[in-house]
Design brief:
Layout lengths: L1 H7 L2 E5 L8 H11 L3 E5 L5 E2 L2 E2 L13 E4 L3 H14 L3 E4 L6 H9 L3 E4 L2 H4 L2
Helix pairs in contact: 3-4
Length: 124
């Protein structure tokens, strides 16, 4: 199953990470870290998240993530997927509410692999 294969990969980027403990971008970021993943927060609106350096985009990361966890609206997600495809990042984890027909078509067109599930549930 794809979900388990992605969860075995240990370097993730959370697109839409933030420092609001009540928001999914923050909960997901912290949960992945607690589970021993190397996690990079991506959000151009923050310098740091949970005391860690935050990056404006995938291109500025110090290493290529194996999985991108999308916590942004489909409107913002399209550009992220284009960047991921250019960088050769194939594994996309789509949180509930982050995908629509356009996003799924883009994933297919770019040859990316996607899982539609909540990582918070998957890591219970």
């Amino acid at each position: 199953m794809l979900e388990e294969e992605m969860l075995e990969k240990k370097v993730w980027a959370v697109v839409g990470a933030n420092d609001n403990p009540g928001k999914y971008g923050n909960m997901i970021y912290k949960k992945l870290k607690r589970h021993g993943y190397t996690v990079y927060p991506i959000n151009p609106n923050y310098e740091t998240i949970e005391g860690d350096k935050c990056y404006p985009d995938l291109s500025s990361l110090p290493e290529k993530p194996q999985v991108i966890d999308m916590v942004v609206s489909p409107k913002r997600g399209a550009a992220v997927l284009e960047e991921a495809a250019k960088l050769g990042i194939e594994n996309i984890w789509l949180q509930p509410g982050t995908h629509n027909d356009n996003i799924m078509k883009l994933i297919g067109d770019r040859g990316l692999t996607a899982v539609q599930a909540c990582v918070l549930v998957a890591l219970r």
